[in-house]
What does this fold into?
Amino acid sequence: MATYKKTSARFNTGDWFTANYCLVTNAERERNAAHDTRQEARFLENETSNRTKWDQFDNNSRLADRVAHIKHLKTVMERTLALLDHEIAGLSDAKDEMELALVAQVNLANHINIENLVLREGRQAIEVVEDEVEDQLCKERELLAAIKLQLQAKIDEAFEHLCVLQDVRKNTLQNLQDKNITLDIDVDQYNLTDDSAGITFKPDATRVPKGTLTVQQWEDFCLFNQTRADTEIANSVRIREAIHQTMQQTANDLLAQHTATAFALRKRIHEQEMALDELQWQKKQTEEEIAEVEAEIKRLETCIRYNNRVTKVAQTRLENRITRPSEEMCHDNVQFGLTDEVKQLDSSLKALEDKLRQAQHALDCLEKNLHRLNLDIQNKTTALNIDRQCLASRVKMDPAHPLTVTERNMTIVGGSREKSEILAF
It folds into this structure.
């Protein structure tokens, strides 16, 4: 009886060995990959552990530095607050003790001061500088305005400054309270550890709250408050001292400022004269150099014209020798010499033309610079005449009887003033 045999896929021996080899190879590759993964995981564990510890240590150090910084600022602000309280009390006492102390005739000085400022507005270009003369004239103007103030103006000034000091004190106190709160918060954060109670995961812990300042902005804010407090304290000291100035001081102050302004004018005139002499010398040297460059340009142009004529001769010779008949047309020494001569002449002509362009450019630069020198000399001459006129107008403010050197020095430093009660800080 016949039997039916089911057909199935048949593989050859090579396929069988290949399949076994693939299984072995894949097993070894997977084991190696798993080994590498284990090693990388162990390396990552060590690295993240070390990084975590160092990050926590760095942040603890930063918190410690931050706490120390805030403590320093807190100490400074406490000292500033004490100074503000002391100054407010002192200025209040000075305001209560005010008396009529400043009556002076300053119309002449004020007229001369305004005249000098208006005259100096006539300066032009670079001569319009904020120099020492302008500073001294502005100081004189401020001094004259201060001398004109009456008792009520001083009272108003003291009252207004007391309001400013109160506002500064309020801001300083608020800033000090904020520093205390911040200090408590940062100290608590510094004391937190892995075993502390109350530590939990926070949603979006890395968010930056709206209105957060940068460190630079925070330092600028603190510096601004401190600087403002120092400035207002200094202004208060100045006001308290100004309250107790007397009539005798007014004349000496005005004379001292007049002397300083006149000295600044003479110093500025001397600087302008020196600068003007230097520019005149530079102008002379520039004009001489222009003349020499122009002469050199003429020589270069003459040399170029001569070079062109010689080039024409050499090229004509070469061209004419082309007409030699048949076998006479040979490349002899004459031909070589003429060819070299033409090439040398072309090279020389190019060098001369380049040098001519350079010389013309230098001449153009010199002429432009000469124009600038002439313009600057004109401006400096105008400014010098203005300052001389200002200095001449101030002769009216000189004392009727010239002082000795000793008296003059004592007047400048204020040594000749009568003693007066000054509220010391």
About this structure: Residues 100-104, 410-425 have pLDDT under 50 and may be disordered. The CA atoms of residues 13 and 106 lie 125 Å apart. The radius of gyration is 46 Å. The helical segments are 13-96, 107-120, 132-148, 151-191, 215-243, 247-321, 333-393, 405-413.
